[in-house]
Amino acid sequence: MRPGEPMDRRDLIEWLRESDEARLEELWARADATRRVHVGDEVHLRGLIEVSNHCVRRCAYCGINVSNSEVKRYRMSAEEILACARQARELGYGTVVLQAGEDYGLTRGAVADVVRRIKDETGLAVTLSLGERSDEDLRSWRAAGADRYLLRFETSDQELYARIHPSLPGRLSDRFVLLRRLRELGYEVGSGVMIGIPGQTYATLADDLQSFVELDLDMIGVGPWLPHPVTPLGRGELPPAADSEQVPNTELMTYKVVALTRLLCPEANIPSTTALATLNLASGRELGLTRGANVVMPNLTPVEYRALYEIYPGKACIRETANECVHCLSGRIVRMGRQIGRGSGGRRRGRG
């Protein structure tokens, strides 16, 4: 198993099924060594701003989908977003991530203006994660200075994808096409999958991993599916795969996918996600960082909005202020013997 070389699908399935602790320690060690060679010991902090919880989609796994009438909706103003970006600069971050549901109240012009102002006033890299938007929107935001775009494809199994992520009326959804278009427009491109979605098999997850390589992703985020009780998946309305084939949505399985992703895509930026911290508040992020990850995403969203951005329940650190969050994370990273990354932390091709 050499870093950067595609693994056979059968090898990937075997690793995903692996339970021997000694073998898994070998996997963690190889992933960590590959991370060190290709992206170094820096851990980059991406300041997350959850700018809106409005969404037009009916995704079967997401707590802010349009069918959830219990959600109190919000949309941050430009000045609120700019205040968060200025705070990110003061805290030493190199990037802000503007994330939302698929909210067409975030208009092309409004988003372009916010991106332009963030670039002019702070010099920070700007990542957008605003769902499936038109080519005109994406071109406009890139021209305004947006550096990166995140769009998870969630699963490479098209039948499963259609069940959990229904298309809007009159519009077919093909995220692989959109991801390739984002590359053509000059964005750094990020994507990823959920682990343990009901109906996801080991073979499907192996295909997901191979898709990361085929797409040549700059950023790859993977995390466990965490059930939200008001969604179809959370209510158990969609069936799991056969017992022997259903991938579990566990902390351990997430670490396996992080490690295999690092070996397959050695140069990519890979976050140790908030979902991992939700499963294991004491050490989930740290374990992710020792098994291939090199990015964390502290939350800059004003506290009064954070609980309303409930894509899954029980999210970690939801009551921490931005200052409390960064001091906690920075201390943990330094205690691991790693360094806080400086600058925008874009993908460094060809290192090692």
Percent of residues in helices? 40-55%
Biggest sheet overview = 8 strands, parallel
* Helix segment tally: 13
Q: What is the alpha-carbon Rg in Å?
A: 19 Å
Please outline what is shown here.
The protein is 40% helix and 12% strand.
Properties at a glance:
single chain, 352 residues, alpha/beta, TIM Barrel, eight-stranded parallel β-sheet, 13 helices, globular
Commentary on this structure:
The chain is an alpha/beta fold and 352 residues long. It has a single domain (9-340), classed as Alpha-Beta Barrel (TIM Barrel), CATH 3.20.20.70. Helix content is 40%, strand content 12%. The protein is built from 13 helices and 8 strands. The protein has helices at 9-17, 21-39, 78-90, 108-122, 135-144, 158-164, 175-184, 202-215, 251-264, 274-279, 284-289, 303-306, 322-335, and strands spanning 42-52, 95-100, 125-129, 148-150, 188-195, 219-224, 295-296, 339-340. Strands 1, 2, 3, 4, 5, 6, 7 and 8 form an 8-stranded parallel beta sheet that branches. β1 (42-52), α3 and β2 form a beta-alpha-beta unit. α1 crosses α8. The longest helix is centred in the first third of the chain and has 19 residues, at 21-39. 45% of the residues are buried. The model has no long low-confidence stretch (mean pLDDT 93).
